[in-house]
Amino acid sequence: AFFRTFTPCWEEVPFQPLRTEKEKTIYKMNHKWNYRPITPEQAETSQTLAQELGISPILGQLLVQRGITKAADAKKFFRPQLPDLHDPFLMKDMEKAVERVEQAVANQEKIMVYGDYDVDGCTAVALVYKFLRQIGHKNLMFYIPDRYTEGYGISIKGIDLAARKGVGLIIALDCGIKATEKVVYAKTKGVDFIICDHHLPAEEIPKAVAVLDPKRVDCSYPFDELSGCGVGFKLVQAYAQKNRMPFEQILPLLDLLVVSIASDIVPLVGENRILAYFGLKNLNREPSKGLLSIIKICGLDKHNITIDDIVFKIGPRINAAGRMRMDENDENASPSGGHAAVELLIEGNESIAAEFGNVIDAYNQDRKSIDRSVTQEAHDYIEGNPEMKALKSTVIYNPRWMKGIVGIVASRLIETYYRPTVVLTMSNGFVTGSARSVPGFDLYQAVESCSDLLENFGGHMYAAGLTMRPERVEEFTRRFNAYVEENIDPITLQPQVEIDSELFFSNITPAFRRDLNRFQPFGPGNPAPVFVTRGVVSHGETKLVGADCEHLRMDLMQRQKPNTTIQTIAFQQPTHYEWIRAGHPIDVCYQIVENHYRGSVSVQLRIKDIKPLRSKQ
């Protein structure tokens, strides 16, 4: 599947010099390989575990590295079970939330399902909306705020519309935990709130009918890493449980939930692992019509969909809708692209869903074009400012940039410069933007240290959003950069590759790959294992691929008995092309993936980094 979108270069064309400073920065980045061999005690445990489970000792080692030391726990890890989901009523305010929903349903009260404009918010709204529709509640509407005119979270505009439409209850998803004043305002309009959020609360909890958030300090729910959609699902689960609905009736909703879990980058451990495991089953066997339309557009309908497929193909298309503006004004909903995303996700007719899917895909194409252009502008500006380039962080501001893509641009800049990054633009008279971090540095604390300069902010360790007055940008930039300078560990500013184990290519047998697949779904907290193989050489095809010859495709061989050759792809790593093509040896670290092409499936190594083995003279 990877190679279908790449344009091969002619093999005889020599490696072209990198054309821009941006390319030089990307390709010269030196990764630090972190490989910590297991202790003798861990080795003994992994050997015993492997024998009991009938798997490779290397895979036994991977289990131990994940804190799994007993066969019973390993079996639970390999085969998640729905009965292991926590009782939703352990979440604070759940009883109140269910009672209020029951009251609204019994009285056919109008309910507005309100959510954020990103993937998590849109899937959460679709999930709760579909459930309420499923149980026969027809007096129903949904609302996604416009990123540009309303911004993140609960808006006065949304509340006023709810009041005009006769809404008695708003169920807010993936937002609302800091909407203290908005909830009070809604009450004056006769509108109640149930808040389902997963962000860190402030000291004061909104005085809603119920506030469901496992991160509340007074909430004893056993798992606090749910996505916003996950909290919405727990409300649905609690309602179904109290009303004696079999779990099988809400099981189909998990395809939406796994899209949220993957896209919101929450840890794939505990309850999230169970929900994602069964959500992927739904996504592969019988996805809802809306998700099916995206799956077909992405070309994923011919092979097994993974978390990576959601992160890199499905999620970005849903996200793109909320980043862009819609042309039409819908009297029942905000004129946001996020509205179109929810329409797609709740659609039950396949042909209509396909039309919505094409609209969403067009948004994504527009988004990609804009973010490429803005990213290049940002690169050019940084490269033209040596003082800025020498800092340990990036704060860059351009009032012309589109608000919806600054988070993507921040992530792109980190790929190049690898340091905490804030990208700012102008919206509705305020400077607003997104911040992203590198592993090991708490971005939220850095932003919070400047809170007196901000109108509002929110987020977590690795991502945040913020708003300020234009006259405060210069001081924010100075203080944010100073905070990073004083608090960041220099090691954090070097890209790291965490290596799980060393492998011979001959170890990668069909049985090994089959057992390795049992570790899925991969994600934060359970990353895809990274292996290292040393002293390999080109054997067969080695060429540059991609529109700009930016990727390196190789057939590599390890010269030990038996000789083993395997196909590999190294994204954004053309630097060592001539060295490898000349037959010189390299060490590689990589993940093992499946390559789907024209109905056939083959093993492929996704190269994370390459180290040439130069002779010592």
Explain what you see.
The chain is of the alpha/beta class and 617 residues long. Helix content is 40%, strand content 19%. It contains 21 helices and 18 strands. The protein has helices at residues 21-28, 40-53, 57-65, 71-78, 94-106, 119-134, 156-164, 180-188, 228-242, 254-263, 270-285, 289-297, 307-323, 337-346, 350-383, 386-389, 406-417, 443-448, 473-487, 510-517, 577-581, and strands spanning 32-35, 110-115, 140-143, 167-173, 192-196, 210-212, 394-397, 421-427, 430-436, 454-459, 463-468, 496-499, 501-502, 531-545, 551-558, 564-570, 586-597, 600-612. The strands form four sheets. A five-stranded parallel β-sheet has the order 3-2-4-5-6, with helices on both faces. Strand 14 (531-545) and strand 15 form a beta hairpin. Helix 10 crosses helix 11 (270-285), helix 10 (254-263) crosses helix 13 (307-323) and helix 13 (307-323) packs across helix 15. The longest helix is centred in the middle third of the chain and has 34 residues, at 350-383. It is globular, with a radius of gyration of 25 Å. Mean pLDDT is 89; it is low at 1-28 and 326-335.
List the helices and strands and how they pair.
Layout: H1 21-28, E1 32-35, H2 40-53, H3 57-65, H4 71-78, H5 94-106, E2 110-115, H6 119-134, E3 140-143, H7 156-164, E4 167-173, H8 180-188, E5 192-196, E6 210-212, H9 228-242, H10 254-263, H11 270-285, H12 289-297, H13 307-323, H14 337-346, H15 350-383, H16 386-389, E7 394-397, H17 406-417, E8 421-427, E9 430-436, H18 443-448, E10 454-459, E11 463-468, H19 473-487, E12 496-499, E13 501-502, H20 510-517, E14 531-545, E15 551-558, E16 564-570, H21 577-581, E17 586-597, E18 600-612
Parallel strand pairs: 1-12, 2-3, 2-4, 4-5, 5-6, 7-8, 13-14, 16-18
Antiparallel strand pairs: 8-9, 9-11, 10-11, 14-15, 14-17, 15-16, 17-18
Helix pairs in contact: 2-3, 5-9, 6-9, 6-10, 6-14, 9-10, 10-11, 10-13, 12-15, 13-14, 13-15, 14-15, 15-17
